[in-house]
Specification:
This protein is an alpha+beta fold. The chain is 37% helix and 20% strand. It has 2 domains: 2-162, Chloramphenicol Acetyltransferase (2-Layer Sandwich), CATH 3.30.559; 246-413 and 432-490, Nonribosomal peptide synthetase, condensation domain (Chloramphenicol Acetyltransferase). The protein contains 13 helices and 15 strands. It has a 6-stranded mixed beta sheet. InterPro entries: Acyl_transf_WS/DGAT (IPR014292), CAT-like_dom_sf (IPR023213), O-acyltransferase_WSD1-like (IPR045034), O-acyltransferase_WSD1_C (IPR009721), O-acyltransferase_WSD1_N (IPR004255).
Length: 491
């Protein structure tokens, strides 16, 4: 039995009629390398069944505490049904990319059943070229980007011949604690909560204005400065970095506002070697190039809609804060930072330079934050009030100016071929989540075997033409490549 952290619970609390809390990925597989040249739902079920002990979150279900007095627990599901979780569907002819993406959009819009382990997998046939897709979604309360990649790795092999896996210890059904035991534990945590919160305040106050949306509230900046002075006096933290704390006004755009329950999904790849060549040519990082590609693509899209703001967009960038000891643990070990995305700059060279400068400043600004600051802030409210406050905050944010415009995330992946049930993995495209607070667009990038695989999720009503953004990302790549070539000629 494992209790969810306050941050894990926030991903449960954020769910509503229009918002789902799961994340996942779309794997495109070549069945010609699998035994018999085929890949069936039974093959995937057999593989997962053999490796459940390596992917424990797939067997966990939620155990709620009475009256919501404490955070819920993950417990083994004694009635686990693998056939329920792994399903099979097929696309109609011709089975092209946009048909597949539309099916993924429908599947990702459906919430998971909280009475069962919070994941589903779909084996999808009928793709052009004879490939097979596997779409897997898992609740964000159980995994983040890095632990999700670890879970994916447990189901993959380095060759078409599956590796030998040590057989699991015999699984024995466990009896969950009684409702009375859970209630007693919850009451104890409520009693201790004010003390724990008071002990955390000197560490948290200096960074209160880093909570997305908090900085625009009256007096928050003054409170953060007072907290910084207090933390230095009490020696409970280094305070905060004051050298460069730019205000980031969040402009109004067509992708911000209350989201609908409906989704769009689009995906595509580009060679990692080409991105690294640009990194070398301009003396920047791979992430700087990725952020510049996103800025250029978004600029083009906003111009299409006659909606380009004078200020840069503000993007939320998730960060992993996992230690080596936490590498294989489930749950969320993440932080975040806000950074400007200079869609307002016309010149591509200046746009790249501004991205590089802004990302360096953002990293410097967020460096003093404790690794656990997001978890600690999530824990300030008692569990019994967490769900109410999260949903109230979402409603408030949807009714006022946006907190951020979009999310851009970059997740490292394996740089060698992987196989699932003998079928070669051709690409793995992230399928993430959107909320009223984080904007109607999420761009997540995962590197795999020499490619950058882009997965884009958007609200269908706010961004119906999402596939245009894939085209614009490729055009942005061509633009930077020409710029690098011209720079080399001048040198």
């Amino acid at each position: 039995m494992r209790q969810l952290t306050a941050l894990d619970v926030q991903f449960l609390n954020a769910e509503s009629r229009t918002t789902t809390g799961h994340v996942g990925g779309l794997s495109i597989l070549d069945p010609s390398t699998a035994p018999g040249g085929t890949l069936t739902v039974d093959d995937i079920r057999e593989l997962i069944g053999q490796r459940l002990h390596l992917a424990k979150p797939l067997r966990w279900r939620l155990l709620q505490v009475p009256l919501g007095l404490d955070h819920p627990y993950w417990i083994d599901d004694n009635e686990f049904d693998l056939e329920f979780h792994v399903r099979e569907i097929a696309l109609p002819a011709p089975g092209d990319e946009k048909q597949l993406a539309e099916q993924i959009a429908r599947l990702t819009a459906r919430p998971l059943d909280r009475g069962r382990p919070l994941w589903e997998a779909y084996v999808i046939h009928g793709l052009q070229g004879g490939n097979v897709a596997v779409y897997t979604k898992v609740h964000h309360a159980a995994i983040d980007g890095v632990s999700g990649a670890e879970l994916l790795g447990a189901l993959m092999d380095l060759s078409a011949e599956p590796r030998t896996i040590e057989p699991p210890e015999r699984w024995l059904a466990t009896k969950p604690p009684s409702q009375l035991e859970l209630l007693a534990g919850g009451l104890k945590r409520i009693a201790l909560h004010p003390i724990k919160t008071a002990m955390q305040l000197p560490k948290l106050l200096p960074h209160v204005d880093e909570v997305p949306g908090a900085a625009r509230l009256p007096g928050v900046d003054l409170l953060a400065r007072a907290g910084s002075a207090l933390s230095k006096v009490t020696k409970q933290g280094p305070g905060r970095h004051e050298a460069d704390r730019p205000k980031l006004p969040v402009p109004e755009t067509p992708i911000n506002g209350p989201i609908s329950p409906h989704r769009r999904f689009a995906y595509g790849s580009m060679p990692l070697a080409d991105v690294k060549a640009l990194k070398k040519a301009f003396g920047v990082t791979v992430n700087d190039v990725v952020m510049t590609l996103c800025a250029t693509a978004m600029r083009r899209w906003l111009l299409d809609h006659d909606a380009l703001p004078l200020d840069p967009l503000v993007t939320l960038v998730p960060l992993s804060v996992r230690t080596p000891e936490q590498a294989k643990s489930a749950g969320n070990q993440i932080s975040m930072m806000l950074a400007p995305l200079p869609t307002n700059i016309d010149d591509p060279a200046e746009r790249l330079a501004e991205v590089t400068k802004a990302m360096a400043a953002a990293k410097q600004r967020y460096q003093p934050l404790p690794a656990s600051w997001l978890v600690d802030f999530s824990a300030v409210l008692p569990s019994a009030l967490g769900g109410l406050s999260a949903r109230a905050a979402m409603r408030y944010l949807a009714a006022t100016s946006p907190v951020v415009n979009l999310v851009v995330s970059n997740v490292p992946g394996a740089q060698f071929p992987l196989y699932q049930a003998g079928a070669r993995l051709l690409g793995h495209y992230p399928v993430s989540a959107i909320t009223d607070a984080s904007g109607g667009l999420n761009i997540t990038v995962m590197s795999y075997n020499g490619n950058l695989d882009f997965g884009l999720v958007a609200c269908r009503e706010l961004m119906p033409d999402l596939w245009n953004l894939i085209d614009y990302l490729h055009e942005a790549m061509e633009e930077l490549t020409k710029l690098a070539a011209a720079q080399n000629q001048e040198a």
